[in-house]
Amino acid sequence: MTADLVTVLLQFQPESPELKQRRDYDQAARSFVSQLSNISASHWSKGADTPQDVLAVLNPSVNSIAYAFALRHRITALADKRSIPDTLKPGGATWNKLVLFLETFDPVQMRYAGQEWRKLVDYVEQIARATGSPGLAIAPIRSAMTRLDSTTGTFTSTHLSFVQLCMETRSYAAAEPILDNYIHSLPSKIPAAVREGLEYSVPCADVASSGEYIHQGSGHSDKITLADVQEYYLLGAMAFLGLRQFKKAQQLLEHVLIAPSNNVANGLMLEAYKKWVLTSCLVGANDRTIPRTANAAAVKNVKAASKAYEALAEAYTQLGNLPKLKAQIRAGAEIWAEDGNDGLVSEVLESQMRSYVSRLSRTYSAIPVSNIANILSGSPEEVTQYLDTLIKDGYLNARIEQNDKANTGAVLRFYLDPTNGPLAKSEKQQQQALFEQTLRTNILAEQVKNADYRLTLTKEYMDNLRRQNKKQGAGGDAMDMAWDDGLDAEEDLMTDLH
């Protein structure tokens, strides 16, 4: 039976001339997945760990669908044992095969084997956790996500489990490549009939968006709820806070606050709002206005429960009034600690101190460190070391000079010309920064364009268009909507997210 199984598994050859047409590839892939799904579990284990082992015969990057099925059945059989066998542990033969597959599979083939893909991704995390090394699952999962969808822009349950894993292991930098990508789609309920005959009609096509092949029926994700999306953004913001990338954190926190709600705020929104108030101070946003798309009633609820944070932010905006800010911090010490925000509050105080020193450049070209020490309530030696750290970390375009002859001690001297000093940027560096920003803007614009296209496929859009055409009456030729007749009414995509 092993030879017969290998023959079956090698039937689908993606580079075969007969499969050059997308429709032919699509039909063959679907048929192949259906065929493998009907093979009993006992057949997959025959010949294991022998020269005829299917995992040794198949190439994970070429025979990806077959390899995914074989590997999933192999791990399932091994996992049924009471203890994890050595071959499944990190460094073991089967573990290495699993990692290799997640890093090298053919992404087009995995569009057709979503359930196998997700199970293998889940397995790598489960094994890593069971062996006490959850961090070892981060790199393979990230590879699997980016190979399936290079933009990782269609949200899946793997997004949430991945960022949870990164936060648990404090691997903030490891999460950044995923968090930096815009989420442009949620797994939709658009039936295959709607896509029939359109440009993005089959999963193997060079689709404009991963939302065309990652949907609620593809198997790549568990069911998504609003809380899942909010938690992802909240944890992502916390990862950026850990990396001291406060502007990115602020943006993700706003994503939590503008999520749809029925005039009621949940706990995730409350936690996000408290962090958002503090983070807004860190990015220098004196105008703490939540985007207008947020639900007004829900925002009112979270504000009422965050008065201590509002008072702290108000004290922060009174530039130069460090004593008041410190008093507010001391008064709410128990609140910050209970909410787990004491570290963020310390950052706010540190930010105010940096802002005070930075604003001195507007008035002075040079100032004795002893004068600064009087305001910051520290010794000249401590403040000198503090200022030196600010310069090295890129917060100040200045230098410290020792002025022993004038008997005034150290002096902080600012570079008034931005082309001089430690923060000076060359013209080439400025052009590179502009180029990178332009590239990010173009990517986002393309994703918005694709989202608009997918919107035209929804029944809600068609119903609205039909109503508009009726209002116009005989004023022009109405669009022929006959192709949409007979489709079952689709449930609103966000219904399950309330």
Strand order in the sheet with the most strands: 1-3-2
* Unreliable segments of 5+ consecutive residues: 476-498
- In DSSP terms (H or I, runs of 4 or more residues), the helix count works out at 23
By helix and strand content, what is the structural category? mainly alpha
General description of the model:
With 498 residues, the chain is mainly alpha-helical. It has helices at residues 2-9, 22-37, 41-44, 54-57, 64-79, 93-104, 114-130, 138-148, 157-168, 172-179, 192-195, 226-242, 246-257, 267-282, 296-304, 307-317, 322-331, 333-339, 342-359, 369-376, 380-392, 427-455, 459-472, and strands at residues 366-368, 398-403, 409-414. The protein has a 3-stranded antiparallel sheet. Helix 20 (369-376) packs across helix 21. The longest helix has 29 residues, at 427-455. The model is unreliable at 476-498 (pLDDT under 50). This is COP9 signalosome complex subunit 3. Keywords: Cytoplasm, Nucleus, Signalosome. Its main location: cytoplasm.
